[in-house]
Design the sequence.
């Protein structure tokens, strides 16, 4: 099997010894080649190793990695299954190891991979994964424990989402190391081609896609949310009551957002409960631990609400008005009255990715957001909008007056 020459930036990543490596890179940097070579190197080094590669979808895994992997491994392949996207390759100690390709949706929807033991995982285009923290924390990360396995997270950024948080984990976790490289760091890409792309793209698009810059997602719903302003490790000095927002789910995550209200009508969110494959009884058991005075569950699930009531939760009917609810929460962010602990990573991720659909020509701006990345946000809206002080419900212009009352 012939060796392949990595360029300088690729070699810098490949030779690093940190257990978890996060690479933020521009388009055409060479991440597919890098990931392929690392997967092969881990697989052939020792028999019975298991290497897993993830792309946003199974089709992406096939299109991005399969053909290059098959070609590179041809001299050492012992078994190939194109329908399963898996290869068994010969190892240096006369054994064999397995390399398998997956789509992230298999983790997000079916939690595929739970119970396996992996030596190395590549998460390609990681910024595009929905429900990342649930999939990583509950499914994939535990698969590395038995073998003390490693992971490579590699992507072009997509707003200030979970990939941004991963990139910054190096500041507080010594197992992590991060790099940022632009498309210009690939010496095999003609600079004039990149300059041509620069001329035809908006500044934000080029900066994100080719320079690896962190830019806000266009069309954000909660554009008033700001990490520096709204994310804090502080706690309220007093608490008048605790309320819950609850969003049901099973295949998709269920969520509970506990909100503590202080004497100045500020809202403090110190933790989140965000899990998939949870029954209504499990959800009720978790919700009871927060000792809330009132809870506001998804009004579209009356049967499940009844289970919560029978468990002892004081369930109130949550408002179904999405547009008015979103406007109310946006106003609270604008006033600086919502305070979120940095550990609420799913809520923060949704705040930074929840967006309106693209406006179509000759049509008004859309009023309702795209129905995705919204489980924790639905909880937030149900609770904050429905529980708002009674004077606010009676007076539609309260927000412009700057005067607030607590019921």
Sequence:
């Amino acid at each position: 099997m012939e060796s392949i020459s990595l360029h300088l930036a690729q070699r810098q990543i490949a030779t690093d010894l940190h257990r978890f490596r996060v690479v933020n890179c521009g388009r055409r940097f060479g991440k597919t080649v890098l990931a392929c070579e690392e997967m092969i190197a881990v697989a052939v080094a020792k028999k019975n190793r298991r290497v897993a590669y993830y792309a946003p979808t199974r089709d992406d895994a096939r299109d991005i990695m399969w053909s290059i992997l098959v070609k590179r491994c041809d001299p050492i392949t012992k078994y190939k299954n194109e329908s399963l996207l898996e290869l068994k390759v010969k190892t240096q100690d006369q054994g064999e190891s397995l390399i398998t390709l997956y789509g992230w949706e298999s983790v997000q929807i079916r939690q595929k991979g739970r119970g396996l033991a992996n030596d190395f995982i590549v998460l390609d285009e990681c910024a595009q994964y929905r429900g990342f923290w649930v999939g990583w924390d509950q499914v994939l990360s535990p698969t590395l424990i038995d073998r003390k396995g490693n992971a490579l997270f590699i992507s072009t950024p997509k707003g200030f989402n979970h990939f941004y948080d991963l990139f910054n984990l190096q500041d507080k976790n010594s197992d992590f190391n991060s790099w940022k490289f632009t498309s210009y760091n690939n010496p095999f890409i003609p600079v004039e081609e990149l300059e041509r792309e620069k001329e035809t793209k908006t500044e934000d698009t080029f900066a994100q896609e080719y320079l690896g810059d962190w830019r806000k997602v266009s069309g954000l719903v909660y554009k008033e949310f700001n990490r520096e302003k709204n994310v804090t490790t502080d706690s309220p000095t007093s608490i008048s009551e605790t309320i819950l927002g609850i969003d049901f789910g099973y295949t998709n995550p269920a969520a509970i957002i506990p909100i503590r209200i202080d004497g100045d009508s500020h809202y403090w969110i110190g933790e989140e409960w965000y899990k998939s494959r949870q029954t209504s009884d499990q959800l009720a058991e978790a919700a009871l631990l927060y000792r809330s005075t009132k809870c506001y569950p998804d009004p579209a699930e009356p049967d499940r609400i009844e289970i919560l009531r029978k468990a002892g939760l004081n369930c109130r009917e949550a408002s179904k008005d999405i547009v008015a609810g979103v406007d109310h929460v946006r106003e609270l962010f604008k006033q600086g009255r919502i305070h979120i602990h940095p550990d609420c990573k799913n809520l923060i991720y949704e705040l930074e990715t929840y967006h309106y659909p693209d406006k179509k020509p000759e049509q008004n701006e859309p009023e309702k957001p795209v129905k995705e990345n919204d489980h924790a946000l639905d909880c937030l809206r149900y609770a904050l909008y429905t529980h708002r002080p009674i004077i606010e419900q009676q007076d539609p212009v309260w927000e412009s007056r700057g005067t607030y009352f607590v019921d």
Notes: The two ends are 74 Å apart (CA to CA).
